[in-house]
UniProtKB/TrEMBL annotation:
Coiled coil: none annotated. InterPro entries: aa-tRNA-synth_II/BPL/LPL, Phe-tRNA-ligase_IIc_bsu, PheRS_beta_core. It holds the Pfam family tRNA_synthFbeta. GO terms for molecular function: phenylalanine-tRNA ligase activity. GO terms for cellular component: phenylalanine-tRNA ligase complex. GO terms for biological process: phenylalanyl-tRNA aminoacylation. Tetramer of two alpha and two beta subunits. This is Phenylalanyl tRNA synthetase beta chain core domain-containing protein. It catalyses: tRNA(Phe) + L-phenylalanine + ATP = L-phenylalanyl-tRNA(Phe) + AMP + diphosphate + H(+). Residues 12-219 form the Phenylalanyl tRNA synthetase beta chain core domain. Gene3D superfamilies: Bira Bifunctional Protein, Domain 2.
């Protein structure tokens, strides 16, 4: 859009100083590796919109908007695209809602970017690549999702996470049941993700009748 507005003919022509072979960015290559591993675990990949509604991004997840997290779109054309998602959770729950008639268990995942306000950036916001996975069944529990996390940490050989040691720490996120959730932390104590059994109130708001377990991980921290 910028090039069109400026005019293609106004862009000066120049020959490259050296001939090189293009390659993928390390983060994209790492993302593909994680995608393949999660798919091998029986999860189906989905691709959702980066824009979502304010209600889905906060209220329907029992979260409150403090005004310092989400990037809000000015003059949105529809209420469904009011903010840039700050989590992948609402996107997967919405996808599950539209595919609720599929046989159980339903196992879906997405590797994508979330955006948050960041005053240290010149544009005022920053992207963050994350993995999110959702498991839905009549007897959903920790075992399936925790097994997936253990597998990913082991396969990617994350240098900052001590595999085999305790890297699950209790948490108190409003979108999960109390004492049925935890944070995923690195060896230095920094949180890189969270998982838990989705709260019944959240499931009711999305129209999902069965228990669900969800995990979201900052995969950039695993590089």
């Amino acid at each position: 859009d910028v090039a069109i507005a400026y005019g293609y003919n106004n862009v000066p022509k120049s020959k490259p100083k050296s001939m090189t072979i293009g390659g993928r960015q390390p983060l994209n290559r790492f993302s593909d590796k994680i995608r393949a591993e999660v798919a091998r675990a029986g999860y189906m990949e989905v691709l959702t919109f980066v824009l979502t509604s304010h209600e889905e991004n906060f209220d329907m997840l029992n979260r409150t908007d403090d005004g310092n997290k989400a990037v809000i779109i000015a003059n949105p054309r529809t209420s469904e695209f009011e903010v840039v998602r700050s989590s992948l959770m609402s996107c997967l729950l919405k996808t599950l809602k539209h595919n609720i008639d599929h046989p159980r268990p339903i196992k879906i995942f997405e590797v994508g970017d979330v955006v948050s306000l960041d005053t240290s950036r010149d544009v005022g916001a920053s992207n963050n690549r994350r993995l999110a996975a959702l498991y839905c069944n009549s007897n959903s529990g920790f075992e399936e999702i925790m097994g997936l996390v253990d597998r990913i940490v082991k396969i990617v050989r994350a240098p900052h996470i001590n595999f085999g040691q305790t890297y699950y720490v209790p948490s108190s996120e409003p979108e999960f049941f109390t004492k049925r959730q935890c944070k995923i932390v690195m060896s230095d104590g920094k949180q890189v993700g969270y998982l838990g059994i989705v709260h019944a109130e959240v499931l009711r708001k999305f129209g999902i009748p069965d228990p669900c377990t969800f995990v979201e991980i900052d995969i950039e921290a695993l590089l």
